[in-house]
Amino acid sequence: MFPPRRRCRKLLVWIALAVVAQIMFTLFLHGEFNFAPIERTRTTKRITRRQSRLRLQSQGGDRLEEDHKFIARSKLEHARGKDEGTEYVESLVVNEIKSTDFPRMSGRNLKNPLRVNRRNQSINLSTAISGLQVVKEREIFVDQSARKKPYFDHDLRAEDPRRLHNLTVLEDVFISIKTTGDYHEARVTLLIDTWFQNAKKQVHFFTDREDNELNERLGGHLIKTACETGHQRTKLCCKMQAELDFFVKNFNTKWFCHFDDDNYVNVHTLVKTLKKFNPLENVYLGRPSLTKAMERKKFWFATGGAGFCLSHALVARMSPHISDGKFADSCERVKVPDDCTIGFISGGRIELYLRGKYGVLQSNTLFKGDPEISFSHGYFGGRYNRINIAGPFDTEQDPTRFKSIHCLLYPETGWCPKSEDVNEQKNHEVVPEPSEKHDCVPSDKVLLFPTRPSKPPDFTERKRFYNKAGIEEAEGGYQITVDNKKVKTPAGNLLVVLSKPLAMAVSVEWNSQVDTIKPANMHLTSLSNTVIDNPRTRNHDQQISHILEFLSSDSICFFADEPEELVDLQRKEWIPIMEWFNNKYSVPVEPSHGLLAATIPDDAEERLKAHLTPLDSWSLTGLEFAVETLKSFILTMALIENHLTVEKAVHLSRLELEFQISRWGSVEWAHDLELMETRSRVAAAVLFYSLNNRRRTLPSSS
């Protein structure tokens, strides 16, 4: 025990040392003495360091609204009194707010957004904070770790400090379109007549065939790649590799955007959306084109869908994984389309922490909600998949609806009909309309179009207007009729089928419609329309190649890793079918796990192609419809060879889903309906194949 006096002296020494330490600490941080409370000093230090980073960023042209919000919020919470440190921070806040333009603060008092109340020495930032609205994130994937450690290869900020991210213009965007020589006339020409006119200098087309005439129309922006001709996955990945290499070597713009040749791009909305994001951060902007998870795979990374945009920083960070042919190698290993491979690299290879918000595509939402960036069209399973809008052109004049979209967006275009000349056209021909369609919301200009309807009409179903459907002999086959009137396809061709049994089956579909005509339930009619119209403009070999592409991604070739019960079930149910297929066609297919593709010999495609070549386009269309529905080439071949029933084939294609239902139960209005629809589609595909396959002899009772 120390004497009382020694204890007091020792306590005084410790107090003196603590005071000196605080003074030296404050002097070291701010260069001046500050006897404010320790908590206030820490707050001042935190805000000041943040402000120092902000000043460094602003010198390079990167002022983020988030920094202003942080300073304003911190100052509002902690500045209850004034010392020298807080006065210094206050002056910085005032200068930054006065030197920054907040477009969304229009209508508010901008003369003095930061008012200082000298009486109680507090700061009122309500006006400033109310003007700093958080950017609504929509259909985006943003890397949150980029704020901590920004990465970029080229010094974009040093190039032009005035080009802030919120001042993005069309010249800051590089747009690439991949196509193939077979689609130069059918697709690229349509894009030239429509949205390409709004971004001539920014759009570059990547193809596999020389076309001097088309290149001249594009202003020299048609780039011939070294890729093989075709629209298959490997060829598409090759073109995507060429796009990325071309961009990295020749351009230093803020954004790289990719779209397909079947996309209409709303350029105005694209630029407007890109203004919300900083190209010096790792940003992936896109939207999946699927309304539900894929049956074969559940991707844990982003998918491109109807196009995507990558920020300057993200392309630079992905460069080690996409340059010098590495992208094509990754695409071949994971066995997914090129746009999905981009998501795989950004979400897996470089381990970005992506988050995204996107809505499910639904019908009848035109002219509602926020603007969309891209619109697509397609023709799958005998039905059009296109935008459902009522425009100045009918579906025969504008089957893709791109011309109608363009005239709604830009009614001043020379070839667009004037609003007073657009009359409602009544179509007296029997043309069943599609059942699947995307929602679409054009830019704000559409809202000003004088002839737009208050509610878009729904063409998917129409009232039954006939008494009886029948057939009659025609040149080259049998014509489908309703009340002795000839039925036509969506492209305006006569609905004439080759075999009488098929004609009778199609007429039964028409007679089965009760009060309304539902094209979604008329699979045989839709398949017949597909063969006659050939909307994809494919020849016999291209159709066979498309069918064989499903073998490398066959749903029964991918086994789960867990749980063990599911793995055992898959082995029990799938392996016997694979063994039958290998023995039947002498193709040793080996199963796989995870994302790796199944092991298939190099000559397997030629062997299987020999079995499919004798089939005509009618039989191939039925076979293709079954393959697309089951996501399995092996199960489809077992079906047409009578090795499996329709019910069994559908069950095997949904094995994982059925396993989950057995454990957790089913949703009657969802799972049961989906099961019945899948069985209906597969049964129609097999029937369509059998009724058109002239090598098979059907019983006379059919």
UniProtKB/TrEMBL annotation:
Residues 169-401 form the Fringe-like glycosyltransferase domain. It comes from the Eukaryota. The keyword rRNA-binding does not apply. GO terms for molecular function: glycosyltransferase activity. It holds the Pfam family Fringe. Its main location: membrane. Keywords: Chaperone, Glycosyltransferase, Membrane, Mitochondrion, Signal-anchor, Transferase, Transit peptide, Transmembrane, Transmembrane helix. The chain crosses the membrane at residues 12-31. One of its GO terms (cellular component) is membrane. The keyword Cytoplasm does not apply. It is a single-pass type II membrane protein. This is Fringe-like glycosyltransferase domain-containing protein. It comes from Pocillopora damicornis (Cauliflower coral). The lineage of its organism: Eukaryota, Metazoa, Cnidaria, Anthozoa, Hexacorallia.
